[in-house]
Amino acid sequence: MYRIRSYFHSVRGKLSLVAVLCILIPAVLTMLIYNSLTREAVERQAKENATDSMQLVNGSINNLFQGMLNIANYFQVNTDMKSSFIKMLNTDLDPYDKFTATNRIMQQLETLTYIGEKSYITIILTNGETFTNYSKDEVNPQLFQQEPWFNNLKQLTGLQSYWVSTSPTIFPYDRISSPYQISVARTLRFDSTRIYGYVIVTMMENKFSRILGSLTGSQEVLLVDGDGKILSSPDPAQVNQTFRYSRQMAERDPHAGSSIIKDGDKKLLLTTADLSFNDWHLVATEPYQDAIVNISSIFNRVFLFQIISFIVFLMLLLLLMRQLTKPLIKLGKVASSVQRGNLEVRSSIRGADEIGRLGFLFDQMLDRIKEMIAEVSLTHARKRKAELAMLQAQINPHFLFNVLNSIRMKVMRSGDQDSAKMIASLSKLLRMTISRDEDAILLHEEIELLTHYVELMNLRQKEEARLVVDVDVTSFDIRVPRFILQPLVENALIHGFNQSAGTIRITAERTDHFLELAVEDDGIGMETEELERLRARLTASGSGPESVQESGRSGGPGMSGIGVANVAERMRIMFGDAFHITVDSDKGTRIMMHIPIREEGRPHV
Fold it and tell me: Where is the segment annotated Disordered (predicted)?
């Protein structure tokens, strides 16, 4: 196992692996492409066959629906029937005329009964008169008026039809052979508005199911409405059930007659056809494996040929590579000897190709190693000298702090406590500023630095400013960039208070991924135009230091002079668009910063 692992870690082993891949990958791709093209052709043929079968069923189902519509059209447009119906609406009609009109209507109903497929015709006039081609003793035609869909007929206009989905059969003699029926209803009108009657044509569902079950093989055809409910099926138990592939049918390409869907780990061929009379569909499902031809024998022969070709070319390629990689193996052994400390060994590999040049350069490199060792020793000595100089430079700030501390002690002994306090605050502020080189510090350190700064500023002003810190305890250990609060407090002291007394409030709260840090003062506030100019500069990308002094809140004397805009620019460089800053000013000014928290509470700076 070790020898095999070592072989594949060598150049020869890697080249052998590359050679295998270069032969294997095209072979696999060829088989995949061949299989894909074959599958596409088979899939296309299967879809075409399923679509052709569906067209045959669609034509037969449409003929049944067309026959029902023809009967309804006959009563709606036939002038002789219309005049007979109008006579029956006349309450003062002579009994003989009434008998004659009734007889004419019944003759027409009898004639239509024997044309085409058997259907039940019901005519209901608005005065309660009914005419049927079946016995009223068996079925009361007035029952249709109690159906929930009957009121929808009043909304029909012109030659519009209302298709009643599958419902239990109300005709006793057909109930055994066909438990369900399908109906279509029309309105009879004097003109485009006034209704004088209704015509309902009913056909048994088994006439549709026989056509749906006429296809041979494993294809199952169903009649489904627009809501996915099964209206007709060769299996009566499925009627009025929800079509199990309604979601896949809704997601299919409406222009494609057939599509392949998933049913667990199986694939099905789903074929649909829209009916021209309503929003009903014919849907056929068939196991995909039953719809395609078997191509395994062709695929196996192609695969066997690919394997034989792969083995032959692989052996030939490995033999050639062994001869070509001999210089590389020798060079590797020389490199191993050099690694063990033998700097006198040489490869002596020469030639016009890349390997010969590599051997020559390798030997030349060994000749220069001694010179390089001397150069490295000299560089190391210079580095130590530079480190010594850096350590010496670090003594200067400490010397400055010690001198300030001595001055403070001397001033305290003389009784000038204010001056001593000022020197102490300055010393602490300088120590935190100079002696640390981190880009980010803890929030409580930033607030401590801010406290010393306010103390210094209060000593130089006529009236003192009060600093109030309201920080959530969970926020103290969050790292923030240095000097983000001092410029904001500086602006409040110089521009907000204008040498007068006031209160500056620092608030901080930690949310899910942000630190909400705010600086608020109760100073004179800002004018509207001045506030808008500052907001524009804060939201503008790439606002540099040259625009800071124009903001109206960031110039002036002070320790920093960095300003609000400069702080916003520095934070945007560090955090990008995740950082947000807002400024509000009415009676005083409030600056809110939304700082992202990264790396377990440490912002990326």
Answer: 538-561
- Domains of the chain, each with CATH number or no CATH: 47-291 (3.30.450.20), 465-596 (3.30.565.10)
Alpha carbons 354 and 209: distance in angstroms, whole number = 80
Q: Residue 599, by phi and psi: left (phi above 0), alpha (psi -120 to 50) or beta?
A: left
User: By percentage, how much of the chain surpasses pLDDT 90?
Assistant: 10
Nearest of 511, 538, 543, 514 to residue 526 by alpha carbon: 538
Predicted local confidence at residue 469, as pLDDT: 92
Comparing 209 with 218, the larger pLDDT belongs to 209
Rounded-to-integer distance, Cα 549 and Cα 538, Å: 13
Distance of CA 332 to the CA centre of its chain: 52
The residue ranges of DSSP E strands in 225-280, in sequence order, are 230-232, 258-263, 266-274
Q: Residues 338-352: what's their mean pLDDT?
A: 81
Q: At what angle do helices 296-324 and 326-339 cross, to 10 degrees?
A: 60
In the Cβ-directed half-sphere of 151, how many Cα atoms lie within 13 Å?
Answer: 2
Which class for 61: exposed (0-12), middle (13-18), buried (19 or more C-beta within 10 A)? buried
Q: How many CB atoms lie within 10 A of CB 31?
A: 14
Cβ–Cβ < 8 Å for 453, 429: yes
Per-residue model confidence (pLDDT) at position 559 = 35
Residue 192: pLDDT over 50: yes
Helices of type H across 78-94: 79-89
Which pLDDT score is estimated for 184? 92
Q: In this structure, are residues 232 and 209 in contact, taking their beta carbons and an 8 Å threshold?
A: yes
Tell me the per-residue pLDDT of 378-412, one tens digit each, with 9 for 90 and over. 877 776 665 555 444 444 555 555 566 667 677 77
pLDDT (average), residues 402-430: 72
Q: How far apart are CA 301 and CA 454, in angstroms?
A: 88
Cα separation, 599 vs 211, in Å, equals: 69
Residue 17 pLDDT > 50: yes
8 Å CB contact between 493 and 522:
no
